[in-house]
Design a protein that fits this description.
about 525 residues; alpha/beta; five-stranded mixed sheet; 23 helices; extended; ParB/Sulfiredoxin domain-containing protein
């Protein structure tokens, strides 16, 4: 199903206005309703939110990882990105949720890196929850984000079928799945749900689907003898349960097998190949707690929580829009503040900067291309005015010779080994033949100039450690992103890319400008 994601609006929200999603597959099946604080505590305890918060506070919040939200009952619900949103909420008040030792680590990172805990978070606004499902499902089945457990995946599908009211063909269209896969997911989920409720009734313990290896349950009922022993079958149209023996006996058998899976970490080894499966089921048949003389049955288990079936096309067009507030001023419509001035006393550079400063915020590509041009010409101007061209060439030529010598050493080892050469081989001859020893006049590419400035100039002209670290840590990523903006038609630029570029490069521009005033 084609969805025009480019039409989705984006907006910067304060963290306090964003609500973590109780229907998040990571927490949706805990058996009780949680408030926002309890959801955050659950994610910290079970989904490594502290570890991710530590990483973010050390390395920064990466661009391109904006959450997806939707508006439900005037609340901004985080559909995708709950862990990341939870991390940022945790960083606002670490001592509220963490032991002192862990809280102090985050607080130290926040102070050392000047991390903006009061930041607004750029979010993509889905027209409704349904249209965000394909992205969420696709992302968490792969490796780009923290992968769901198999049970989470099945529960996500079951939620669309039972709670959202979609028919199987519509789910297939949304998730790009086959009907066979969707039905298999529903079969496994339905049998797990039945066993989960029996276990809860029997012990008072709730088994979280993300903590249970649901593939063990699948392999069990897909083995014909095991399925017959359980006394269960499935409706071909939707994977609903059909109990084929006396219900009390079915529940006894299902609960016994389920408990074995919960209690035994080695169940997958016991129920592995065909021979193991036969042995395991035969042991079950020999167990005296089961009654094998019960009458046959053909009882459908009622679908749990099923709602009235909905029409996909009608659901797709339902939109809960963001309430837009009129801006008091257009001053925020620019990346660079209107009252900020940067002077190099070069007519072209100063005119370039004025044009750059007055580009409206929505001119994403114009800004990215112009700031890259400005960066390249500022570096060239600075190197020329400081007479650094000769040093830059010297450094590059020395690096070229070192790289060439390393290659020749590798070649020498190979030749000696391959042809049983015992005499020493003079590397100088190879350097001369391969022309690695001569000096070259290097073209002043952006990478060449930026590397030289970063490695040999910045420490001399920037005295503030935090500012220096910010530039050196992020400047390569910014440069690579701007290169892609110029050279790659498929690379997407948005406001966050441009803001990160300006926030990283502004201290560099300012330092270079100030250092030139001494000449």
């Amino acid at each position: 199903m084609y969805i025009d994601y480019t039409s989705w609006e984006t907006f910067d929200y304060t963290l306090s206005t964003l609500h973590l999603d109780l229907n998040n597959p990571r927490i949706n099946y805990q058996g009780k309703s949680l408030n926002q604080t309890q959801i955050l505590e659950y994610l910290i305890e079970n989904e490594k939110v502290y570890e991710l918060a530590k990483k973010i506070s050390e390395e920064g919040y990466f661009i391109g990882e904006e959450p997806i939200i939707c508006i439900e009952n005037d609340k901004k619900i985080v559909l995708e990105g709950n862990r990341r949103a939870a991390c940022l909420k945790l960083l606002q008040d670490p001592k509220k949720f963490l032991p002192t030792s862990k809280a102090n680590i985050l607080i130290r990172n926040i102070v050392d890196n000047n991390f903006p805990v009061d930041r607004k978070l750029r979010c993509h606004i889905a027209p409704n929850r349904l249209l965000a499902n394909p992205i969420i499902y696709s992302r968490h089945r792969g490796d780009a984000l923290k992968r769901w457990q198999t049970g989470n995946q099945y529960a996500f599908v079951a939620n669309m079928f039972y709670n959202d009211g979609l028919v199987i063909n519509d789910i297939c269209e949304l998730l790009y799945e086959t009907s066979g896969n969707i039905k298999n997911y529903l079969k496994a989920y339905n049998l797990f749900f039945e066993a989960q409720q029996l276990h809860l009734r029997d012990t008072g313990e709730f088994i979280d689907i993300s903590k249970f290896d649901i593939t063990n349950l699948e392999r069990f009922y897909k083995f014909d003898d095991a399925r017959i022993f359980l006394g269960v079958d499935f409706k071909p149209e939707d994977g609903g349960l059909i109990i084929t023996i006396d219900k009390d006996e079915f529940e006894k058998r299902l609960l016994f097998v389920f408990n074995e899976m919960v209690q035994s970490k080695g169940f997958s080894r016991e129920f592995n190949n065909e021979e193991d499966k036969v042995i395991y089921v035969n042991k079950l048949k020999e167990n005296t707690i089961f009654d094998f003389y019960v009458s046959d049955n053909n009882e459908n288990v009622e679908s749990h929580g099923v709602v009235e079936r909905k029409n996909l096309e009608e659901e797709k067009i339902k939109i809960n829009p963001r309430k837009k507030v009129r801006k008091k001023s257009d001053l925020s419509n620019f990346i660079i503040p209107r009252d900020y001035y940067l002077v190099f006393e070069n007519e072209k550079l100063d005119l370039l900067f004025e044009e750059l400063k007055f580009l409206p915020i929505e001119r994403y590509y114009s800004f990215a291309i112009l700031i890259r041009t400005y960066l390249e010409q500022v570096l060239f101007y600075y190197i020329d005015k400081r007479n650094l061209g000769e040093k830059l060439n010297e450094k590059n030529n020395q690096k070229r010779k070192n790289d060439g010598l390393a290659k020749i050493k590798t070649l020498t080892v190979f030749l000696k080994s391959r042809y049983s050469i015992t005499e020493d081989i003079d590397s100088a001859d190879f350097m001369r033949i391969l022309r690695f020893d001569g000096d070259k006049e290097f073209a002043s590419s952006l990478k060449t100039m930026l590397d030289y400035i970063k490695n040999h100039e910045l420490r001399e002209i920037i005295s503030e450690p935090a500012k220096l670290r910010n530039i050196t840590d992020y400047i390569d990523n910014v440069k690579n992103g701007l290169d892609l903006a110029v050279h790659n038609l498929n690379y997407t630029i948005d406001i966050n890319v441009n803001r990160r570029a300006w926030n990283t490069l502004e201290p560099l521009f300012n330092a270079l400008s100030n250092n030139l005033m001494d000449i």
